[in-house]
Design a protein that fits this description.
heterodimer; A: alpha+beta; outer membrane lipoprotein receptor (LolB), chain A; Phosphorylase Kinase, domain 1; 7-stranded antiparallel beta sheet; 20 strands; globular; B: mainly alpha; 9 helices
Chain lengths: 315, 167
C-alpha cells in the first residue's frame, strides 16, 4: 500500500515537473513577446569587469512597426536606432546605417525550434521573486548542461513580461556581464516625439549592396551540442572590399557567428582572442583566409569553433 | 646445578616436593626464569620448528610504554558509533568539496588569459578592438540576446573604453 502511494506520488511529481518545465520555458517567450509589443522607456546600467555604463532606451510600437532608440549617457555620445529591421548608429559624430541584412519588417522573434533546443542544452529553474527598478520580477536561471556555454539569469517583470535585468555567469558563478534597469516607465505615457524626428530616413546608407543567402561550402565541425545553423549569408561589411561569408549558429540563448573573408596581405595581427562582456572574439589567419568567430560563449568555445572551420565546397 | 634441575623438571623426573621447591626458586630467580623459558623454546624448536614460542612480553611492554597516552575521555560505545558515522559523512563531504574544488581548478572555462596560455598564443589585447566592432554589430543582429534584452544588447557594439583614445 505504501509502495503504491509512493508510486502515485512519484507520477504526480513527474507530471507537475513536466508542466513546470513548459511554464519555465514560457517565460522566455513571454519576455520576447513583451519586449516587442510594449511601449517602454527607461535607464539601464550595463556592466562587465570594471566597466560600468549607463544608457537610456526607448521602445515604441507604431502601427507600421517598432521604433527603438538607445543612447549612451556616459562617455562619448553614441546612439543606435532600430526600425523596420534596420539599424542606424551614431558614433564619432556620424550617423551611419550599419546594416540592413535581414530586410525584415519586424525584429526577429524566437523560433519554437530554438525554444525546444533550449531545454536540451540548459536546465531551466525558477529562482524566486526579486524586485528590480521598483517592479516585482520572477527570476529564471538557465544552467548549461556542458561547460561550452554560459549560465544565463533573467529577471522578468511579473505583470508586463518585460525583461528588467539579465546576467551572464561563468562556471565559477561569477558575473561576466549584466544589464539592469534602474528606472523604467511602462505603457501609455512613454514619450514618442523622437520617433518622427530622429528616424534618419534621409541618411545615406553606408552599404548599397545587400546580403545574399548562400551555400558557401564552409562548415564547422566542432560546434557544441545543440547549436543549429540559423543563417548563412554573403554580406558586405563596413571597411571591407570583398564580401564576407557569415554563418550564424544558435542554441536558443546564445549565438556564434563565423566570419570568413580573404586575408589582407599586409595583415600583421594574425591571431588573437579578445572579449567584451559575455562576447568573445577569436580571429586567426588560416591559408590566406581571415576567420573571425564571435559569440556570447566562453573563450574556449570560440577557439574550438574557429579551429574546426573547414571548406567543404567546390574551389 | 639449577639448569640441570630445571631440565629434569621439564622431563618430569622430579618428585612433587622437589618440583615445588624448584618452582619457588624459579619464581624468585630471574635467571632461572630465563633458563626455564629458554629450555622450553629449545624443546619447541626441536619438536615443531614452525611454531616457536618466543617470549615477546618484554618487547610488547617496551612498545606500550613508548605509546602516547590518549587523554580523551572514554565515551560510550553508542556515542562513539555516531561520531564515526558523522566523521565518515564529513569525510565524504570533504571529498565532494575537494572534487568540486578540483573541478574549479581545472575547469577549462577560464579567463581569456588562461585560454591563451592553453593554446600558447600571446594575447595582443584582451579587450575587443574598435576595429572589430563591425563583426560585433553583424553578429548582434542575429543573436537571441536581442530577444532577451531588446535593444539593450546593442550597447555592446558601441561600448567605449575610457582608456582608449577616442577616434
Amino acid at each position: 500500500m505504501r509502495v503504491w502511494l509512493g508510486f502515485c506520488g512519484l507520477m504526480l511529481a513527474a507530471n507537475v515537473c513536466a508542466a513546470e518545465g513548459a511554464s519555465r520555458l514560457d517565460w522566455l517567450k513571454t519576455a520576447a513577446f513583451a519586449g516587442h509589443q510594449t511601449d517602454y522607456s527607461g535607464v539601464f546600467v550595463y556592466q562587465y569587469g570594471n566597466h560600468v555604463e549607463t544608457s537610456r532606451i526607448s521602445h515604441v510600437v507604431e502601427t507600421d512597426s517598432e521604433y527603438e532608440k538607445l543612447e549612451s549617457l556616459d562617455g562619448p555620445k553614441r546612439e543606435i536606432i532600430r526600425h523596420h529591421g534596420q539599424v542606424w548608429c551614431y558614433t564619432n559624430h556620424k550617423m551611419v546605417q550599419v546594416d540592413s541584412q535581414s530586410g525584415r519588417g519586424r525584429f526577429p522573434l524566437l523560433l519554437p525550434a530554438q525554444l525546444s533546443a533550449l531545454s536540451e542544452n540548459y536546465q531551466v529553474k525558477e529562482a524566486g521573486v526579486e524586485r528590480v527598478a521598483g517592479y516585482n520580477t520572477q527570476v529564471i536561471l538557465y544552467q548549461p548542461r556542458d561547460n561550452l556555454r554560459y549560465t544565463h539569469k533573467i529577471w522578468v517583470h511579473t505583470d508586463s513580461g518585460l525583461l528588467l535585468k539579465s546576467a551572464v555567469l561563468n562556471e565559477k558563478n561569477q558575473v561576466v556581464e549584466q544589464y539592469a534597469f534602474t528606472e523604467l516607465k511602462i505603457g501609455g505615457e512613454v514619450d514618442r516625439s523622437w520617433v518622427a524626428s530622429s528616424t534618419p530616413g534621409n541618411s545615406k546608407p553606408a552599404l548599397n549592396k545587400a546580403a545574399m543567402t548562400v551555400n558557401s561550402g564552409w562548415v564547422v565541425d566542432a560546434l557544441p551540442n545543440g547549436f543549429k545553423k540559423t543563417m548563412e549569408i554573403l554580406r558586405p561589411m563596413h571597411g571591407k572590399h570583398a564580401s564576407v561569408t557569415q554563418l550564424v549558429f544558435s542554441d536558443g540563448l546564445s549565438a556564434i557567428s563565423v566570419f570568413i573573408e580573404p586575408a589582407d596581405a599586409d595583415e600583421d595581427d594574425n591571431e588573437g582572442l579578445t572579449s567584451r562582456g559575455a562576447v568573445n572574439l577569436y580571429h586567426k589567419v588560416v591559408d590566406k583566409h581571415l576567420y573571425n568567430v564571435v559569440g556570447e560563449v566562453p573563450p574556449k568555445t570560440v577557439m574550438q569553433v574557429l579551429d574546426s572551420i573547414r571548406f567543404n565546397g567546390k574551389q | 646445578m639449577m639448569k640441570h634441575e630445571i631440565s629434569a623438571l621439564m622431563d618430569g623426573e622430579l618428585f612433587e616436593d622437589e618440583a615445588e621447591i624448584l618452582f619457588g626458586q624459579i619464581k624468585r630467580d630471574p635467571s632461572a626464569h630465563q633458563d626455564w623459558a629458554t629450555y622450553h623454546m629449545i624443546g619447541d624448536v626441536l619438536r615443531q620448528p614452525e611454531y616457536v614460542h618466543r617470549d615477546i612480553s618484554a618487547v610488547v611492554r617496551e612498545r606500550l610504554q613508548n605509546e602516547p597516552t590518549v587523554l580523551a575521555p572514554r565515551s560510550r560505545a553508542l556515542k562513539q558509533k555516531a561520531r564515526v558515522f558523522a566523521l565518515s559523512a564529513a569525510a565524504s563531504l570533504l571529498a565532494v568539496g575537494v572534487v568540486a574544488w578540483m573541478s574549479l581548478q581545472i575547469s577549462p572555462e577560464a579567463s581569456p588569459q588562461m585560454a591563451m596560455q592553453q593554446s600558447n598564443i600571446r594575447p595582443v589585447n584582451m579587450q575587443i578592438q574598435p576595429k572589430s566592432n563591425d563583426y560585433l554589430m553583424a553578429h548582434q543582429e542575429f543573436s537571441p540576446s536581442n530577444d532577451m534584452n531588446g535593444g539593450a544588447s546593442y550597447i555592446r557594439t558601441v561600448t567605449y573604453n575610457p582608456e582608449e583614445k577616442s577616434q
